[in-house]
Amino acid sequence: MRAVDIQTEYADELSRRRDPCGEYYSAVRFLLGLAVVFMACIAFFTNVLVGVRVSGESMSPTLHTGDYLFMYAWGEPDYGDIVVFDAPAGSEYIKRVVGLPGDTLWAEDGVLYRAHAGGEAAAVEEPYVIAGWKGNIAVTVVPEGCMYVLGDNRADSEDSRFFGAVDMRKLRGVITGWSFSARGTITRIMDIFSFRW
Predict the structure, then answer these.
(1) How far apart are CA 27 and CA 191, in angstroms?
(2) pTM as predicted
(3) Residues of the chain with confidence (pLDDT) below 70
(4) Predicted local confidence at residue 4, as pLDDT
(5) What does the pLDDT read at residue 55?
(6) Which of 15, 55, 58, 60 is catalytic?
(7) What is the structure's pLDDT at 197?
(8) Contact 166, 75 (CB under 8 A)
């Protein structure tokens, strides 16, 4: 290739880059790409991974008022999971899953027992429950498509003992393990960015 050809190609490239229309279209493409990324983030954080702030002490000592967590909106609950669901009163509750469809549950002197469908009953280990609760729960069979939930602070929790098993269709999401582990850090970060009027 000759030096004249290189200079001509270089001059053509410079004039193309300096073209106002080219700069305009480049800026438009950049802004459209930025808008798509922004919309995808909004969709993700409002439909898949949703932030939740705890209100009340029904999950104490595990969670406290003001704790900030993330829930996975498409998660399937399992034993011991902390879930968010639509409560009968029209608000959202955060509780722990202790029973799934077909389970038989009861409590005697503060000890929760669970028998899986057709299985042997066993005491449920609950190190997260506030010591001192010595209540009883009548024998309950969890219906199909439902879950039985209790607060960790059994003495101060409105849960399935009062409104029965929760329909799985009312489930909003399952608290993620990583956000539970990092709840202190997440709460401090969210407090920095929250506006109080």
Answers:
(1) 35
(2) 0.77
(3) 1-7, 11, 14-23, 195-197
(4) 57
(5) 92
(6) 58
(7) 44
(8) no
- What is the C-alpha end-to-end distance of the chain, expressed in Å? 69
Q: What CA–CA distance (Å, rounded) separates 13 from 162?
A: 74
CATH of range 52-193; options 2.60.40.1930, 2.10.109.10, 3.90.220.20, 3.50.50.60? 2.10.109.10
- Name the catalytic one among 15, 55, 91, 95: 95
Tokens of 19: 């073209």
* Residues 105 and 126: beta-carbon distance below 8 Å: no
Domain boundaries defined on the chain = 3-47, 52-193
Token representation of residue 9: 């190609």
Choose among 107, 84, 99, 93: nearest CA to 58.
93
Tell me phi and psi for residue 19, to 5 degrees: -65, 125
160 is catalytic: no
Q: Are 70 and 52 in contact (CB under 8 A)?
A: yes
Instruction: Write the Ramachandran bin of 9: left for phi over 0, alpha for psi from -120 to 50, otherwise beta.
Output: alpha
Q: Is 181 a catalytic residue?
A: no
